[in-house]
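Weekend entry, working from home. Most of the wet-lab plans are on hold until the incubator is repaired, so I used the time to fold the two sequences that have been sitting in the queue since the last round of cloning. Logging both here for the record. First:
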Amino acid sequence: MDDCRRISSCFHLYSEAPTFNIGLSGLDGVTGLTGHDPTVSRLICTPIPAGECNPKNFKQQADDPSLYAGEDWGYLRTTAEELRQTVLQQKDQILNDQRTIRELTGKLSECLKDRIEKLEVERSAGPGHEADADRPWRMEDLEGELERKVELLEKERKALRLETEKHRQEIDQGLSKLHHRLSGLEEGVSGHPFPEGYRLSFPTRTNYMYAVVKHSIPKLRAFTLCLWLRPAEGGIGTPLSYAVAEQPNELVLLQGLHTPTELLVNDKVAQLPLNLSRGSWQHICVSWSQKGGAWQAYQGGKLRGEGHSLAAGHHIRPGGVLMLGQEQDSLGGGFDSSQALVGELSQVGLWDRVLSSSQVASLARCGKVTQGSVAPWTENGVEVFGGATKHPGEPCSKHSRSSQ
């Protein structure tokens, strides 16, 4: 009876095959991990009172699923589900979550090792131990497979990072080539000879279309700015702006959509009584002196207005960026499309003194004033960007020019 009770008290059962799916298949480029449906044996030990040992009941007891559908495999399934949720939550951060992957691997390995130890203890306690050798898949194999999958995930993550970096470098190289190509096209356009002079065209209101005067601007205690302008829209925008590191509005000529034409010196403003019409060429000149902040505004060679106290005592600082077609909110940048010029410019000139009214009138009649010029209108002195273009011909190309 003792032998029967000893043999009967620990009989061998077969549980349903567990399936592990921790959600790795939801990640792009990563193969999911699914168990091989092994038949895992376990031992269920129950006390048998003396005299009630019946070997015929062994098979019936072993076939009863209620004896093993207990908490152990439910615990494993719960653990696998929690791991799946954890991995899914890390989907958007997988590129930067190597530390989380290591923690996940450690926790999973620790859990599996604990379960394996318990199963091995239970398995070694009864005659079902011999049957384990015939199983096609063991828990040790499952743990090793999971660890290999995690290692594969880390390798693919590194490969993805390298591929992303490679794509970024290719994009940067492509942009660099495109920039050089555009620069070459712009230089090619600017390199064409214009025997009849040239004009700049700004066909649309953008925050990237502009031209730069390449002449270096010296320190100025006074200046005269003249240009030919043909606006294409109401509110001419910004024909010219000069910015230095300390002050983006060192010298600006602009007109807003619903505001009068303004002259800014060191961010101080004077409103100019100019009447600029669309579609026709107009000659504009403005002058300024630090003595009393005196200013004058001319249109068509005639004085339209004058004033004083505009940045009195200030001097125009050297070494800045003289730009055509855009207003600078920072040195060489910070453009706002609502302040962009739409139209054409030609024969932009800057002098280091206040020109007389007769000199301004001569310029309006297509004359020339060379004395004191710091930014003459030359073919190679202006560089265009962002789609601004140079076209042959200018307002005075059909007039003979006299020097003064």
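Second, folded right after the first finished:
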Amino acid sequence: MTIYIIESLITYHSLWKQFRWLVSLKTTHTGEKPYHCSHCGNSFRWLVSLKMHERIHTQEKSLSNVPSV
């Protein structure tokens, strides 16, 4: 029974990796940019790129609260 569970998990993991690879391939070749910035509307292919971009907006907000000398 344990061996069956382990084999099932390995199969599931490999299928998940293949699915993620196909999604990545589709995004790359179609030019699709499914991730959008809620602050400025810029679009990105990868979620990580959107997260890095959003830091620009959060840093601008924190710097705008600092009084000028």
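Plan for Monday: verify the second prediction. The helical segments are 2-30, 47-64.
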